[in-house]
């Protein structure tokens, strides 16, 4: 750790430390053997919950132990208790899981078990879960697991109340991004929310107007962020998504509802911005790469061959990319070949 003086151990101290570590390893191996034997024998006695607790206290990333723990509850514990007793048991289980989340806030299996607890609880408290997501993200605003869990909790609140929280959640991501432009998880969450907000508008013309409004507002935000910190990859990945490059299959980009003329307008607008930024930051790899990508996209959209000037500019940009990002030299060489193929077509 930085700032902590390294203590040099003498031979006797080293020997004692090694013996202690060996003892711990043997203890853990013994517990694992007990677990494997019990599960193989389908021993779902409630006493084995203590065994799973011991193992998870050692290592909460052992997903098979979490699975066994759930099997014990389902096969032995739940069938023999009342609804209220089941709720009490799961409340205690949720507290145990929370104690693990505080120490290990990025372990998938912990979040997975928490979801299982809530889905099996007779009376899940989703408002309390929302408060937990607030605490998780206040501790680490970029915790991907925290954002993913928040989306899950929001979906359950919406389902229970028959209403949507998309607009409210969009405001939440805005606050997170305003605090830190580098919050990739917040930008990612924003893509999910915007897609939902646009898709729920059933009238095509209304959806188109909404998409235009959202697109320009989002681009204005990106422009501010880009000139503030042009090297931040989170900003440019989101910019690519807005312009229709990084959307998933079956998930149309915002630009898809716009006409050819409108898409052309936005592409030219963004290319102009990138050119201005490139003059200030000539070695910024995102500017170089997106100038090529958007330029090629514009030419495809217009069904026009690139000009000689564009050809020379793009080739020059691939040379710059190879210099500033040598680890991806092969990728940029392939990009140059793609440009030459387009030009020769």
From TrEMBL:
GO terms for cellular component: Rab-protein geranylgeranyltransferase complex. Residues 6-38 form a coiled coil. It comes from the Eukaryota. The keyword Transferase applies. The keyword Ion transport does not apply. Catalyzes the transfer of a geranyl-geranyl moiety from geranyl-geranyl pyrophosphate to cysteines occuring in specific C-terminal amino acid sequences. Belongs to the protein prenyltransferase subunit alpha family. This is Geranylgeranyl transferase type-2 subunit alpha. It comes from Schizosaccharomyces cryophilus (strain OY26 / ATCC MYA-4695 / CBS 11777 / NBRC 106824 / NRRL Y48691). The lineage of its organism: Eukaryota, Fungi, Dikarya, Ascomycota, Taphrinomycotina.
